Structures are given as structure tokens and as C-alpha cells.
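Review form for a predicted model. The reviewer records the input and the model, then writes brief findings.
Reviewer: anonymous (R2)
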Amino acid sequence: MNELKTEQLNFKDNPEMAMADGFIRQTGCHVFLTGKAGTGKTTFLKHLKDTCYKQMVVTAPTGVAAVNAGGVTLHSFFQLPFGPYIPGRTDTDTRRFFRMSKEKKRIIKGLDLLVIDEISMVRADLLDAVDDVLRRLRRSDTPFGGVQLLLIGDLYQLPPVAKPDEWQLLSDIYDSVYFFSSRALAQSELVTVELQKIYRQSDETFINVLNAVRENRMDSHAVQLLNQCAEKPLPQRGYITLTTHNRKADDINWERLKQLSGPRKELRAKVTGEFPNHAFPTPDQLVLKKGAQVMFLRNDPTETKAYYNGKIGRVSQISGGSVFVTCDPENGEGKPSVQVELDPVEWENIAYTVNEEDQTIQEEVIGRFKQIPLKLAWAVTIHKSQGLTFDRAIVDATDAFAHGQTYVALSRCRTLEGLVLSSLIPSQGLGADPAVVDFMARVVKGQVLEERFRAARISWQQDLLIECFNCSKFAGLFFYVVNLFENNRSVVQSIGIPDMAAFRESVRNDIFNVSDKFLNQLRGMMGADTLPSEHPAIGERTRKASAWFGNKFDAVFGEFLKKGGVETDNKALAKQINNGLDLLKQEIAIRWAGIVSCQNGFTPDTYLAAISRAGVASIEAKPKSARTRKTPPDYTELDIEHPEMFKILKDWRADRAKAQGVPHFHILHQKVLIQICVYLPTTESELLKLKGVGPGTIKKYGDELLAMVNTYRKKTLTNVE
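Model under review:
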């Protein structure tokens, strides 16, 4: 296999990947990392997670994508409601997503880098909702609250989903449904890095054909080459069929399994903690027979590298809890087949939390799924094939319903020789949305990334150093709190601040005024080519300023941070002043930590680590307590693995609403229907675990809901006899 290895990631032969790495680590620019299928985007993310010093959170638009990326869903992390987000709206549903736990607020306060994988599936309004949350919780007017974004994905692959009624609301605000139409992103500097080196295919002819499909520029020669693949007889063995719908893939797999003689074997997964059904990487009840065609769902961790995620094989033996799979040789005919023994492996479901020892963001494993890393593989949907590589594939894209679906299917295959088409490819209608073509042409054309990186690195360091000593960032908040106290001094008693007027003047003269003068000196030392971390004079001046301001902060703010507060019988006023005091103390602590971090000179990694830890620590941690059950995460229609069940529930709800003469949501909210489709509950106790389902719902509709789920399960999920 000619693939990147995370532990041996070498940028020498991949200048675009090296450039992306540099922008992420050494600038504050938002980065859109894109590239054709098989260019190593997923491998790059794994490498970044293992090695980057920035405090990061990895997200994705769906549950399956989040597990694959080793992260969490966008909706669950930012607690975003379903439906369109209208920028500037202030209704109850919009305000709801700022009611976050202290733990989540601490994580967001300490965040440096937000990664969004599969960005092609993220709508513009969702990205603006993320911007709104980050600005408010980080108290910043900067787009995305000053957090750097790494957006990973291929716009020529699967697009975001917007229903007609949703797009009717959004079309007056956005030029397109894609993330690049986000208002917040338009206010930011976005660097697009397009990876060029393809690790999946090496056949130049096939690569050129795929590029033609991808970029909507098919000519007669490309059409002819592809349609020759439709003239091949449909093979019966060793090929996987890529199709458009779940039901079609399931039907093929179950039918082919039935045709095999011999007994079936059920292998049950071990699920512990929180691991929702919709994110299971393979069935929790894996049904296999000897001779079944299967797909590996993990890479071989041994030195032999006998298999990889997406490789096809045949079950040769099932013994106890182990499965033996026979694989065809990797390189050419005439070599003997290889038999691999597989034992159950673990997948992890993670959440982000704060390490109380060092105040850093860390991953916490909240659930595990242990199963044989295989799934039936006579067929798979195009959607689920994203990120996989196949030696031999049959593409059935006759019902392709979204831009990029045909390209995704074709590009899963390693060679043109291994590709079979179930029908002829039309000469038009395969390519990308014109909005995508236009965007990519604009952002890639004429880019000189080396010059842009050099300038961005310098300006980022200069901005960070100015920010470090810029005490005016909390001046407005300081005078707001002082004025609140002084305007209400007849009913307010200060604690830890014996003379508020003297305190105000001390802060004004010793902190704000001196800070402004020092910033003017720093700016005077900085030229267009000045990199602060490598400038001796700036380094010396910064070390001295760090010592002076550090001592002054201690003298002026030390007692205030420990004891400063107010007492008053006016509860509303007390709440207003104390909220202001809490925020002020947070900002002072963060600024102080940043200044002290420069005691040996300024470096971006040391400074960012200091203010991140201080931001996390500035919000008091909620005492840990025993939890009976975490609140289930929010899911969207993108997470639904059973669309037929969803339609059954919606039709039932519509009939009930019509009979009672009430709106549909009076029967059940859509988010409840979605959760039912995700979890497929079979008992009342399982129903009660869903958000929005209480005893009243159970009494009214419990029997009907469970009957529909059980009927659906028997019809579609029954094990093959």
C-alpha cells in the first residue's frame, strides 16, 4: 500500500501538507485543507492530534464522522438546536445554546484550535452558529472568538443538506448553502491548501479521468474510458458494490449471505459506557458464515500490514470469538492468499474535559465498542464508503441524488482495471455544484502560499505580543464594574477594596497608562519583517516588561483577585456587580498569566499555553459528583441510519396531528423522532431515556411507538436464517 503513515509522516515529498502544517502551528489563519480523494487528509489530522501544541477540539457534522475522526459532533459540543440558524436572531431557541455547563465553558475558554472534519457537509448557517457561541462565551468580537479553525474536506464530495423550506429561510442571507458562504468566515482570513499528491491511485490515466469527473469537465475520451468499465461482466466474487441507498446495500448483503450454505454465526459486540447506536462502526450483532465477503474496518497494527481499512476478504473459519479471513495478495496475480486471524478490537467514544492538574483540554473516553473489525461487504452505500479504498468495486450510481456522489464512488477504487460500472455514465450531470467550482477557482488561483505564510507568521507573532501587554482589553469591563459600585455606594459595601476611588486611579495610572506607553514602544520596534520571537532587542525589552508588569499586577490586583467582592441587600444589583466582578477577575488572570509567560522572552507556544490554562482555571470547576446518566447528545437527520423508520414516524405523527387538529410538534417534537430512529428503543425504560420523553408521552403514545419500532426491527434487522 502506497499510503502515508502517521508515525512516519514526512513532508519532504509533500510541500502542500508541509505548508498546511506550518499555517496551523505558526499562524492564526483559518485553514481550509482540501484535496482530491486519497491525498492523506485523514492521516494528516491524526498526525496533528498527536503532535500539535495548540489546545484543540476535533468535531464533525455526524456521529459516524466524529468517531472516525476521533472527535465529537458539532451539534453536541456547541449544544446547537436543530433547524436553520438565522444570524442576529435573539429568540428563545437561539439563546438556548449558551446554557452550557461550566466544564464546557472552561474548555471553550481555553481553546486555541477548532477542527471541523467533513466540512463539505457543514452548512453556512451552522458555521455562523458556531461563531456566535464562541464570540459570546469567549467575550470577543473577533470572528470565532479568536479561535483558529482547521476545516478539512473535499467540496467536490458529499454536500450539505438543506430542505426546500430551510433554504427558503436562508437564501436571503447566504449566497449558497456551503460553509464558505458563512458571514463570519467572510470577516476572516481563510487560507486554502489543496493537497496534490494522491496516495490512493497511481494510474495517471485514471487520476485524469477522476479529475475530469470531479471538476465537471468530462470530454468524450473520459466518458469512453469510464463506459468501457460498464461493458465488463458483473463479477460474483472479490468485488464490493457501491450504491446510493442503505436499503439497496442491505438487500444485497443479506441476499448473498442467504445463498451461502452452512451455519451462521452471531458475534455480539461488548458495549460499555456511552456509545450511541448510530455511531456503531459495525453491527453490534455481526452475522457471518464461512465464505462471506467482508470488509476490514481497521488497519493491520502488525509489521506484516496484511490488511487495511476497506480491504476485502472472505471468511474462511469462525472459531470461538475469533474470525479467520482469507485475503487476496496485495500485488499481482500468482501470489498465495494470506489468512488473517482477527480478534475483537475496541473503538472509543470520547468527550472533551479539563485536566485539573495542568488545566489543559484532554480527551476522556466515555464509551467503548468492542467487536470483530469486519462488516458484510458485498455492498456498501457511497456515503459510508467515504475515506475507504477498494482494489475492486462495482459502482451503481444510477440513483445518485447529490452533487459529488458519483465522484466519491468512482474515486474509492484504486485502479481503472478494478472498476466495474453497472450502467453507462452520462456525459453531463456528474460534476460539482457551480458554486463550488467558482469558489475553488477563486481561492486557489494565483496563490503564492510561501509568501503568504511568511507574512502571516510575522503578523501573528506581532499581534500575539501586542495582545499580551494590551491591558486596555479589560479596561472597559474594569470601569463598568467600578462605576456600578460608585453609583450605588449607598447600598453596596465593598469587600477587599478599602478605597474604591484610590483603586481606580492606581489601576488607571500604573496599569492602563503604562501599558499604552509600552505598546507604543513595541510597535516602534516592529517592522514588516520583524519576527518577535527571533528579535534580540524585542526579547530583552519583553523580559524586562514581564518582570515589571508581573510585580505591578501582584501589587495592584493581588488582594483584589483573592478577596474582592461586594455585599448588598439588593439581590438584582448584587448579581449584576458580582457577574461583572467574575468576568473582570477572569480577564485580569488571563492577562497576568500571559505577561508572566514572557519572563524568558516571548514564544507563541509558551504564551498560548499560559493564557489557555489561565482561561480554563479562571472559571471555577464544578465539583465532580457521581452521575447516574449523562444527558444524551443532540442528533440531527444527518445521523439517522434508518430513514424508513423516520418516514414511518413522521407519517404517524402527521395522522395523529390531523385527527386531533393540532400542529405536528404538539404530538412529538422532531428531535424525539430523530432520537427514536437513532436508538430504536424496544422498552418503555429505553424510551424514557430520550430527551423530551416523559411519563405523559409514554402514557399517550408509548405502546404505538414501541409497536412501530419493533415491527421495523423485525422487518429490516432480523438475522439471516
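Findings: The chain has four domains: 6-199, 204-432, 452-602, 640-716.
Further findings: The longest strand covers residues 360-371.
Recommendation: see findings above.
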